[in-house]
């Protein structure tokens, strides 16, 4: 009897969650989900915490420390009027952070190899009122190693065609190695998320930056809230300043 009763309760809960997500939720008050203090393309409705189901609630939860190390580096390096290039835009959160820091006299140029993420990033940018400062291009820079959503249709842009910039952010799932090796200019600052599991380990990336004339420091795990996963896969953020600029 208890097992049947529990199964019945579970069925009712799942049915209520489905009904909520597919009908009632659409009419409810909403507010943007915030990552690193930035409004994202996601929305959370008033009833999500009660009716949406655990997976859905987690999907629509705020993440204050999202991309914490990259955000820390941007806040340290980016000043008004600077040009920032972001390779691996993801959901657009760090692009918005950079745009708010560089202000109306600067610009942020982004490249993202997943069309789904391009759409997400553009909506995140729009919601934060910085669309005039941020370009989001659907493009692959370097080799396609860890492209999200298995997108293999993005047009390839030659590394030599990248625009010069003051700050370069690399969060490109393994292709950071080839980009650093072939970059035709030397930004004053580079922020790079390393991906040991994709053949771009932290030590090797640090050595490549040193060879290009950069002094580096380790900002720690890319996502401190996911420290165990970052440690297992060697995912860290390096901040590099060109020695000729210091």
What is the number of beta strands? 11
Mean pLDDT rating:
87
Give a quick account of the main beta sheet: strands, pairing sense, barrel closure: 7 strands, mixed
Helical content band: 25-40%
Radius of gyration: 20 Å
Strand order of the largest sheet: 5-4-3-8-9-11-10
Order of helices and strands: HEEHHHEHEHEEEEHEHEHE
Question: Stretches where pLDDT falls below 50 for ≥5 residues?
Answer: none
Describe this entry's structure for a reader.
The protein is an alpha/beta fold and 246 residues long. Helices cover 36% and strands 24% of the residues. It has nine helices and eleven strands. A seven-stranded mixed sheet has the order 5-4-3-8-9-11-10, with helices on both faces. It has a two-stranded antiparallel ribbon with strand order 1-2. Helix 4 runs parallel beside helix 5 and helix 7 runs parallel beside helix 8.
Task: Name its key features.
seven-stranded mixed β-sheet, alpha/beta, two-stranded antiparallel ribbon, 24% strand, 36% helix, 246 residues
């Amino acid at each position: 009897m208890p097992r049947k009763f529990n199964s019945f309760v579970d069925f009712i809960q799942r049915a209520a969650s489905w009904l909520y997500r597919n009908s009632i939720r659409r009419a409810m008050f909403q507010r943007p989900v915030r990552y690193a203090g930035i409004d994202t393309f996601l929305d959370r409705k008033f009833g999500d915490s009660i009716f949406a189901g655990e997976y859905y609630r987690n999907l629509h939860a705020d993440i204050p420390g999202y991309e914490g190390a990259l955000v820390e580096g941007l806040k340290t390096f980016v000043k008004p009027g600077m040009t920032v290039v972001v390779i691996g835009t993801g959901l657009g959160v760090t692009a918005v952070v950079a745009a708010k820091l560089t202000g109306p006299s600067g610009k942020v140029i982004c490249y993202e190899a997943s069309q789904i993420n391009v759409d997400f990033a553009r909506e995140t940018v729009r919601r934060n009122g910085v669309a005039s400062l941020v370009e989001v291009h659907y493009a692959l820079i370097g080799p396609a190693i860890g492209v999200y959503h298995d997108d293999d249709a993005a047009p390839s842009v030659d590394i030599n065609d990248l625009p010069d910039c003051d700050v370069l952010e690399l969060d490109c799932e393994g292709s950071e190695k080839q980009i650093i090796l072939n970059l035709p200019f030397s930004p004053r600052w580079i922020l790079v998320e390393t991906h040991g599991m994709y053949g771009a380990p932290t030590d090797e990336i640090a050595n490549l930056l040193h060879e290009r004339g950069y002094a580096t420091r380790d900002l720690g795990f890319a996502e401190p809230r996911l420290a165990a996963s970052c440690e297992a896969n060697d995912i860290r953020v390096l901040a590099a300043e060109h020695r000729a600029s210091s």
